[in-house]
Design the sequence.
């Protein structure tokens, strides 16, 4: 199998094949909205053609800067939050070893929350390391990364001097305006651009994701090749054979029948942050106007021993999407101890990956039998190429799904509510009235 | 504030105070079921009195064995899954530094899934370390830990010889029977007992959790003292003033009104696995008979930039429980750069923890205004003592909540379904008929 394979054969009795046919006109309407760029939020459709738009020279510059950082430092601190954090982390965790990254730089994260203990411990940890920084923010005023960058910039300038720090800081930000762009110009930092027409959660294949991914030693050329081939594939295929459209349609059908919640299940701990990235992508794209499927993620088989009971027999509000890898890659064999103390004798000499695979098959059947529709998305192997393909697949499927639901999948108006409160409570100039009002509550 | 503080003042208009009064008789009935041990699953109520039942000599032996392991090895590999994994990991992540555990041993985990890449990379990582192992399994035949223990036992015996390995392996298992008990007796491993009347998800305060927690350098005496005082407090308080009963009652009230899903939100990345432990506790206890609140967890402020949009304005099926720490502990200050490039000038010189706290307050108000009832559970500080208290609080609240819902909160019949399929697909002797049936599907 040399393609991404979307399998709805275990969706169970809640899905009848004629329902896909019945949705065809709606899917075609969505297809036209994407094609003609006239749907809600279409000013943020830059990601759709991005894999073929990204210039080879720019990709080479990312690669070169990553190599420059690798030569200067052991650790790259990636400062970003939300869409400026999750995509890179998803790819890096999927594609580098669990213990010590022998492929490229060690990557640490900052600015992805406001916990001072963590920041303090990170600064102490960096004290005796050679450090480089990639700060990623469209505006430069997002509270979390701005605070982290103040702290880390101070540490870098103390450690390397102003000009030494300059060599080790790379900025990814707006092309023309904003606090971080101004600072980068003033300090002379190497800079990459976040395209205007690509929102945070659709930005993993732009320099936002690609620079940290390259610094971690992952082949970004292969990743973009995978994305380019996905772009072509999901543009050309007949709509009912197109995995993006099928996945989007089926999740909408199941939602219309009362499934409120989708659980994304993976069978490799390295896929944890793919789940986090996916939750932002779908949650932020669809969770608005009091609508949207609630996205949750499960790590198997770990969570079969925690959330497994719920999935099998709790409220029947769930459907499950499994992200699988056909070729597990390793051939670690279960040792033959010559004994059967633990009842595993029948597995001696078999690969661990076989047991994992049979656990997956057994789980899919059990969950389907329990009333949980199961969808399967399988990539041929865990590689940069297929990760690029998978990212593009999910982004396009998400856009289609959001349009089918009748929302703008590219805005996020709800994230302002807590920010306004927080700024007022912190005494930000200009929000005095709200401050008084909140403090009276 | 020197107590755990449960605050339902932001539950919003969905909760009226008379509703708690109206549930009083049901809460008293549940209280009697726990007291008289005559409710469903009451043979697994051992955790209820456990903090005062655990003998000082046994606690001392745990401490002594942990010290012995600390003296012998750098890394302790904890082999376990579900309830034999999540509690220890929750406590260890909460109470040891994010980068390098200067307090005690480095803890790594195995047997918590079936991914061969991870196991292979772990074995390579351990090659040049001094290693000890704590294998935790009631039966010794649970597939994930049994496979990991086969591999790690082989590595240990190659590395240290049979008798050297014996010194470095500690077993936590059944008192009398089972594969692991038999193996421990045969090999002469140091052994701790999992009490018969305490199920996995209620076992964190038994040797299951305490040995790895002690090895990580955490004060288990303080943790048990916290749990003992919680036991006394939640036994004696009038039922409507009792935080366990109030939390349980309110989550049931909200569920009865159509809130299908509870999100546990924490504001410290060290609390991630507290969320995982909590999801098992509540998900496995209540998710049965097609009932139960779906438990999900959020890490703030990280997830305000991903799931925040959904919580603010998606389907109104959510309520949110925040777990907070009154005293953040650190005093990392936001540097004053003398400039205001990033718009943070008004925060210069203030502690990062203040911003985190105001983010929490602003979020709670925004979510409540958006139609998400918000509950707050606040502990005075992040310490072993209050972690012990918090564990006990959640376990008792979970038991009360499950009984209110009308389920047996101590069984997990649904987890057998996938296991039966998996064993059959793997060709386990005795499951030939099921194998044929599954393979025909």
Sequence:
């Amino acid at each position: 199998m040399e393609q991404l394979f979307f399998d709805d054969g275990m969706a169970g009795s809640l899905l009848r094949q004629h329902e896909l046919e019945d949705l065809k006109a709606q899917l075609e309407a969505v297809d036209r909205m994407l094609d003609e760029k006239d749907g809600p939020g279409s000013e943020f459709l830059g990601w759709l053609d991005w894999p073929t738009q990204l210039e080879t020279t720019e990709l080479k510059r990312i690669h070169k800067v990553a190599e420059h950082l690798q030569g200067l430092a052991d650790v790259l601190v990636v400062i970003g939050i939300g869409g400026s954090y999750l995509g890179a982390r998803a790819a890096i965790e999927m594609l580098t070893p669990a213990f010590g990254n022998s492929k490229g730089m060690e990557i640490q994260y900052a600015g992805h929350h406001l916990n001072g203990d963590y920041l303090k411990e990170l600064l102490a940890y960096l004290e005796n390391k050679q450090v480089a920084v990639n700060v990623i923010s469209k505006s430069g005023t997002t509270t979390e990364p701005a605070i982290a960058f103040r702290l880390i910039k101070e540490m870098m300038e103390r450690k390397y001097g102003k000009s030494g720090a300059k060599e080790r800081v790379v900025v990814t930000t707006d092309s023309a305006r904003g606090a971080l762009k101004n600072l980068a110009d003033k300090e002379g930092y190497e800079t990459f651009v976040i395209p205007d027409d690509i929102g945070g959660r659709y930005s993993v294949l732009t320099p936002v994701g690609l620079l940290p991914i390259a610094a971690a030693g992952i082949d970004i050329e292969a990743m973009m090749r995978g994305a380019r081939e996905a772009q072509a594939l999901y543009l050309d295929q007949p709509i009912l054979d197109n995995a993006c459209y099928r996945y989007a349609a089926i999740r909408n059908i199941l939602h219309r029948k009362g499934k409120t919640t989708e659980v994304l299940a993976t069978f490799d701990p390295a896929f944890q942050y793919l789940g986090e990235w996916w939750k932002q992508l779908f949650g932020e794209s669809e969770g608005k106007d009091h609508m949207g499927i609630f996205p949750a993620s499960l790590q198997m088989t770990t969570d079969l021993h925690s959330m497994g009971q719920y999935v099998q027999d709790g409220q029947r509000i769930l459907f499950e999407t499994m992200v699988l890898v056909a070729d597990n890659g390793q051939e670690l064999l279960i040792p033959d101890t010559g004994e059967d103390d633990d009842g595993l004798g029948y597995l001696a000499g078999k690969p661990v990956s076989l047991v994992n695979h049979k656990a997956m098959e057994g789980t899919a059947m059990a969950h389907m039998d329990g009333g949980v529709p199961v969808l399967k998305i399988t990539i041929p192997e865990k590689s940069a190429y297929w990760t690029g393909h998978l990212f593009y697949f999910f982004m396009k499927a998400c856009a289609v799904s959001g349009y089918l639901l009748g929302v703008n999948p590219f805005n996020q108006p709800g994230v302002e509510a807590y920010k306004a409160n927080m700024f007022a409570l912190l005494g930000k100039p200009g929000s005095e009235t709200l401050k008084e009002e909140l403090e009276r509550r």
About this structure: Chain B is about 50% helix and 15% strand. The longest strand of chain B covers residues 318-327. Chain B touches chain A through 132 residues (CB under 8 Å). The longest helix of chain B spans residues 143-168.
